[in-house]
Write a structure and sequence with these properties.
Elements lengths: L7 H12 L12 E7 L4 E10 L2 E10 L2 H14 L4 H15 L23 H33 L1
Antiparallel strand pairs: 1-2, 2-3
The protein binds zinc ion.
The site of zinc ion has 8 residues, from helix 2.
Length: 156
């Protein structure tokens, strides 16, 4: 199990987000909702995004599963809220690269995400740490398809 092997400080950060997840309440209004599932561990997540003018105006995430998956989702809501879609996509790719050892956190400040970097020493848990991020990625893809559909309707 990965959590016991992490530094005390990092474990505390993860458990804090797990027990007190941020932006945990479903939004009253949202533009897109996506569900993510990690069959390796049984983690389940829901992500909602409210997007205006290409900016993530509001974000919510909730679900059930291991502390790493739920903490990572909580941390990402803090990092991604208020950012432009392009910046969010860059952050997603960056964190994927970090977890797959193609990049390191010293290249960009990602707040509490630092606590999750140690998880990459446990390959079976990397999907737990990435679940929230891949779910947001899928939500953005879905949003763009819907937006594209709207544009086409207007044009015809
Ligand atoms: Zn998990």
């Amino acid at each position: 199990m990965a959590l016991e092997a992490l530094d005390d400080l990092y474990r505390e950060v993860i458990l804090d987000h797990f027990k007190n997840p941020r932006h945990h309440e479903p939004l009253t209004v949202h533009d897109v909702e996506e569900e993510g599932f990690n069959p390796l561990c049984g983690d389940q997540l829901f992500v909602q995004l409210k997007i205006e003018q290409g900016v993530i105006q509001d974000i919510a995430s909730w679900g059930k599963g291991c502390s790493i998956s739920q903490a990572s989702a909580s941390i990402l809501t803090e990092i991604l809220k208020g950012k432009k879609i392009e910046a969010v996509e860059r952050d997603i790719q960056f964190f994927k690269d970090v977890m797959n050892r193609r990049s390191d956190l010293d290249q960009q400040d990602m707040g509490d995400l630092e606590a999750l970097v140690g998880v990459r020493n446990f390959p079976v848990r990397i999907k737990c740490a990435l679940l929230g991020w891949t779910t947001v990625e899928a939500a953005l893809k879905q949003f763009k398809q819907v937006e594209g559909g709207r544009c086409k309707k207007i044009q015809s």
